[in-house]
C-alpha cells in the first residue's frame, strides 16, 4: 500500500560553482588545480500536501569518475554538468509519490538513455561511464533525502524502516535480504566523533626541503606541520602503482616523518591507508610492495589499515586481477569499481574484502552498498572527492551513521579551504581540527543532519 509519508517533487534547480585549489592534487597520473561543484535545490510535497525544501551538493570530479585518453577532462566535466542539469529537469516532471530510495531507483533507469543522448549531442568519443553518471546525479539524490527528512521533521537516516520504506531490501539487492530494511544497517544517532583521514598526495611536500614554493596562506606547508596543526592520526597515502621503488620510498619517507612528528606530540598510535588509484598491473605488484615495506619498516607496515583498489576498475575485463593473497595481509577495498550490487558480488569473488563508500556515488546507493557490505562481513570505509562545505558534511554524516566505519576522509580543508568558510562558524567541530577527529555528533539535525 502507498505510504502517507511518500513524497513527490514540486520543483528543482541545478547550479554550479568553481573551487580553486590552494595546491595541486595528483592522482591516477593526473593533476587537479581546481574543482567544480554541482548544487541541487528542490521542493517536495507529501500526499497530505506538506512541502519542504532540500539541498544536495557534490564535486563533479571528472578526473576520478571519467579518466579517458579520448575525452578530455574539460569535455568530461561539461558532459557531467549537462547530465546533472538534465536529470534535474526530469525530476521536475516526476509524476509519482514514493520514498527517496525508490525515486532514486526510478531515475537511475533513465541514466543510460540520457548518457547516450549526451554523447551524440556533444559528439563525445566514448560514452559517459556509469560511475560518472552516478556522481553527476548524486546531488539530486542527496537533496531528495534532505527534503524528505525536513518535510517529516526528522533526520533522514531515521526514516529508513518499514514504516517509511515501501519495499524491503530484497527489492534492491537479493532475496537474502527479505524482511530487512535499511534501519537495520544504520545508526539512530551519529557517532560523536570520528578520526579524520588526511590525504598525502603524490605532489604534496613531506619535509621542509620539499617546499620549493611556499603558499604562504597560514596553513601548513608540509606533512609534519599538518600532523601538528590538526593532531592527525590517520594518513591516506597516494601512490603511483607503476613505480615500485618510488612507492616503497614514499611510504618509508612518510613513515619516518610521521614517526618523528608523532613522537614530538606524544602520540603512540596512528594509521595509514594506501591508494594506488588502479595503477598496479597485478596483485604481485601489491605483494612485492608490502613485502618491501614490511622488510624495511615493520612498524610502518603494521600501521597500514587498508589498501584501496590497486588494479583496473573494469573487473569483468580483468578477471585475473584477483586480490585473495593481498587480502590475507590487509583489507583490500573496492572503490572505483563499486557502482552497483552486481559489481560488489563480482569484487567479492575476486578477493576484495572491503568496500569504500562515497556519497558522490549517490546517497541511496551508498546506503544499499553499506547494508550489503555489513551482511557480508566486509571492511567498510567512507571517502570523499575533495568535498568542501555541504558535500563534506554529507559525506561525514554517512560515515557517522554506518556501523563499522571508524574514520572519515576529508581533504577539502587541504586543497580548497576557501569553500569551507561559510560553514565553519556553524560547524566549527567539523572544520577546525585539533585532535585528529571531527565532531560528527553535530550532524543530528533534520534532513541529512545539518
Task: Please give a structural write-up.
The protein is about 35% helix and about 20% strand. It has about 450 residues and is of the alpha/beta class. It has two domains: about 5-165, Enolase-like, N-terminal domain (Enolase-like, domain 1, 2-Layer Sandwich); about 195-440, TIM Barrel, CATH 3.20.20.120. The strands form two sheets. Strands 4, 5, 6, 7, 8, 9, 10, 11 and 12 form a nine-stranded mixed beta sheet that branches. It has a three-stranded antiparallel beta sheet with strand order 1-2-3. Helix 10 links the parallel strand 8 and strand 9 (about 355). The two termini are about 30 Å apart.
Helix content: 25-40%
Q: Output mean pLDDT.
A: 96
**Major sheet:** 9 strands, mixed
Radius of gyration: 21 Å
Written as H for each helix and E for each strand, in order along the chain, the element string is: EEEHHHHEHEHEHHEHEHEHEHEHHE
Query: What count of helical segments does DSSP give?
Result: 14
Quick description:
The chain has 450 residues and is of the alpha/beta class. It is built from 14 helices and 12 strands.
Topology:
Elements: E1 7-27, E2 30-46, E3 51-59, H1 62-65, H2 73-92, H3 100-122, H4 130-151, E4 194-200, H5 223-230, E5 234-238, H6 244-264, E6 271-275, H7 283-296, H8 298-302, E7 304-308, H9 324-327, E8 332-334, H10 341-349, E9 354-357, H11 363-375, E10 379-382, H12 389-401, E11 408-409, H13 412-415, H14 428-431, E12 437-438
Parallel strand pairs: 4-5, 4-11, 5-6, 6-7, 7-8, 8-9, 9-10
Antiparallel strand pairs: 1-2, 2-3, 4-12
Helix pairs in contact: 2-3, 2-4, 3-4, 5-6, 6-7
Amino acid at each position: 500500500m502507498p505510504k502517507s509519508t511518500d513524497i513527490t517533487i514540486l520543483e528543482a534547480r541545478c547550479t554550479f560553482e568553481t573551487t580553486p585549489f590552494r595546491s595541486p592534487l595528483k592522482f591516477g597520473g593526473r593533476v587537479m588545480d581546481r574543482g567544480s561543484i554541482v548544487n541541487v535545490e528542490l521542493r517536495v510535497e507529501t500526499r497530505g500536501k506538506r512541502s519542504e525544501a532540500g539541498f544536495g551538493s557534490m564535486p563533479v570530479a571528472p578526473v576520478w569518475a571519467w579518466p579517458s585518453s579520448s575525452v578530455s577532462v574539460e569535455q568530461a566535466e561539461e558532459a557531467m554538468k549537462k547530465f546533472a542539469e538534465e536529470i534535474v529537469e526530469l525530476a521536475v516532471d516526476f509524476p509519482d509519490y514514493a520514498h527517496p530510495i525508490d525515486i532514486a531507483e526510478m531515475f537511475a533507469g533513465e541514466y543510460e538513455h540520457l548518457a547516450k543522448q549526451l554523447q551524440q549531442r556533444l559528439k563525445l568519443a566514448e560514452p559517459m561511464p556509469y560511475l560518472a553518471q552516478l556522481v553527476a546525479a548524486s546531488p539530486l539524490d542527496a537533496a531528495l533525502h534532505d527534503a524528505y527528512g525536513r518535510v517529516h521533521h526528522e533526520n533522514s537516516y531515521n526514516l529508513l524502516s518499514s514504516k517509511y520504506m515501501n519495499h524491503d531490501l530484497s527489492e534492491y539487492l537479493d532475496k537474502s535480504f527479505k524482511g530487512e530494511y535499511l534501519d537495520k544497517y544504520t545508526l539512530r544517532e551519529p557517532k560523536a566523533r570520528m578520526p579524520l583521514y588526511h590525504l598525502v598526495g603524490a605532489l604534496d611536500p613531506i619535509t621542509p626541503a620539499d617546499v620549493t614554493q611556499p603558499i604562504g596562506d597560514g596553513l601548513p606547508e608540509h606533512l609534519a606541520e599538518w600532523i601538528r596543526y590538526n593532531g592527525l592520526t590517520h594518513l591516506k597515502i597516494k601512490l603511483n602503482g607503476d613505480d615500485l621503488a618510488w612507492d616503497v620510498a614514499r611510504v618509508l619517507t612518510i613513515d619516518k616523518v610521521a614517526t618523528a612528528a608523532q613522537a614530538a606530540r606524544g602520540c603512540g598510535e596512528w594509521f595509514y591507508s594506501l591508494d594506488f588509484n588502479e595503477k598496479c598491473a597485478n596483485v604481485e605488484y601489491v605483494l612485492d610492495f608490502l613485502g618491501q615495506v614490511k622488510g624495511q619498516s615493520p612498524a610502518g607496515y603494521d600501521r597500514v589499515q587498508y589498501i584501496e583498489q590497486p588494479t583496473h576498475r573494469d573487473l569483468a575485463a580483468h578477471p585475473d586481477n584477483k586480490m585473495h593473497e593481498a587480502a590475507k595481509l590487509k583489507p583490500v577495498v573496492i572503490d572505483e569499481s563499486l557502482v552497483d550490487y552486481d559489481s560488489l558480488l563480482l569484487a567479492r569473488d575476486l578477493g576484495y574484502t572491503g568496500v569504500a563508500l562515497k556519497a558522490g556515488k549517490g546517497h541511496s546507493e551508498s546506503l544499499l552498498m553499506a547494508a550489503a557490505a555489513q551482511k557480508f562481513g566486509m571492511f567498510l570505509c567512507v571517502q570523499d572527492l575533495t568535498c568542501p562545505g555541504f558535500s563534506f558534511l554529507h559525506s561525514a554524516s554517512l560515515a557517522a551513521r554506518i556501523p563499522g566505519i571508524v574514520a572519515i576522509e576529508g581533504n577539502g580543508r587541504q586543497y580548497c579551504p576557501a569553500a569551507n568558510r561559510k560553514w565553519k562558524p556553524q560547524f566549527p567541530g567539523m572544520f577546525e581540527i585539533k585532535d585528529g577527529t571531527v565532531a560528527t555528533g553535530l550532524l543530528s539535525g533534520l534532513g541529512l543532519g545539518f
